[in-house]
Amino acid sequence: MSSYPDREPTTRYTAINALRSIFTALACYLSFQGGQFVAGWVLASLLTLSLVWLLLSMKWIDAETQSGYLSFLPTFSDITLLTAYIYYTGGSLSTALLVYVYVVAVSSLNSRAPQGLFAAIYTILLHGTVTLALAFHWLPPVNIVGPVREPGSLEIIQSLTLVTIICGGVFFMIRSLVESLEQKNNSLGRQAQEFEELNRDLAAKSRMIKDELEVARKIQETLIPSTMPDGKGFRLESRYLALHEVGGDYLDFFATREGYPGILVTDAAGHGVPAALVASMTKMAADRFKHQMRSPRDFLHSLNGAILDRINLHFVAACYAFYHPRRRLLKYSVGGNPPPYLLRPGQAAVPLEGSGSVLGIHSQPVLQKYRAKLEVGDRIVMFTDGINECRNKDGDELSGDQLEGLLTGLAALPVTENIADRMVEELKRFTAGRGFEDDVTLVVLTVEANK
To answer: What is the pTM of this model?
Structure first.
């Protein structure tokens, strides 16, 4: 909220008070010029009051104070000045009678003080007094803008009646409108306050959810292995990028007593917390069956049975591979996940054979055994479909040919090069700042010479 005051009401009040002084001075001048010295001195007194009020409003009385009970003073001055003008322009026959309605209407807009009621009563009383004084010839008829004519009895009654009815009606009509608007404003104010409180509650809950998601992220990070099997004849690299604070992808590594690695890559359907819970359940189930790590198909069958009917119509895509370094033999099984890619120096990258059913849906998923004979310098890349779903700046998905071209370029890099990071960099370059559409997980197995 700005610390600077709102100058618009102050400027408006100053302009009105200045105009009041100008018109009072004009009326005072006309009175003395017309030989109406009594009225002239009355108007001179009002001029003095208006000038004092103008000075006070400019120096000491702010707009907020002017709209209180002090508003009766300028209203008194305005109606008195207007009545004097009406007297000098024909009395009950003056066309300036309509200005009474304007003064009462404007005064009735003040909701902080009964300025409108005061204006209506004072107008009726003062106009009635002047009209009756003219009727009983206590005041001489005057008209400085036209011929002097004494109104008839019917015209006097009509003038008194119309001023009374119109001023009173305008007051009640404007007052009712102002009260209605105030009620609506109060209602809107209460609603705004309720919305503000609701926004505060939502902000607090949002912060709480964010904090809880941060805790969940840290917990999920503990599910991702911080170390990988390290043995002779192979090297492993991995990258895990969650789309949200928590993700549905999961990877794990197992190792035999000889140090032979088992590699599991899974992708739970969906995003966010539900997928993360399914991934956590998959992790716990996988730990139970790591004794079957040498047989990829049996391992995935057991994993399917452990999560079946426990993940509420969600499913898990998975790929599990076991590598025998001495024989340079890769055994793997695919359950709804993209198959691994073989990167061989000097050749185009190719996807290995492999397909199968997702896990967690059927009690007997279709899973097959696959084998691949590898050579020194070969690389096996396993990943989830977050890579396939990458989109460029135009919204086009990464095609199979584009993926193979990217991997072929990586295959030409030296065996000592860490290509997991290079692959993520290439994918980010392809998306051109758009970001990934899904969680991204990849594992790179590099075949090295046995030492």
So the answer is: 0.58
